[in-house]
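INFO batch 0412 | record 1 of 1 | parsing
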Amino acid sequence: MIRRVAVAVLALASVAPSPVWAQRPASSVGIQATLVGSDPAFGGVGGTVVKALDRQLRLTAGATVGRAGSETRGRGELALEYLFDPATRGWSPRLSGGVAGVSGPRGGGYVLLMVGLEQRPRERTGWRIDLGVGGGVRVAASFTWRLGRH
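INFO prediction complete | emitting tokens
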């Protein structure tokens, strides 16, 4: 199931239209803190990369290292997200779906579903906040630096 979702996300990303350079939206990199309410709970920090496919559709990848109980674990995520209002100077809502994987003896793969807000999508920096599910209830906040055109 997880592989099918990952293949579908990558297939959608590969067929997205490629805008001319002057219209190309900005991609970004960021640092992220993630908490997952699971048994045991996971908390960690890591990095994110967001590849803008067009003005509203994006491919997001993240890697986090943290603690679950007394163990150090890694968590990776790959998601396709839809940004509702990319031109706003305020906060824009987002919907995301994809896959997540957790390392360790009690790790595994999970379907990832999230709602979120993104601050100032057209500016050079901004915050991103997510709430969703994927291996438990997931909350994340990240600060991003946008690359390229704004």
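INFO post-check: Residues 15-23 have pLDDT under 50 and may be disordered.
INFO record closed
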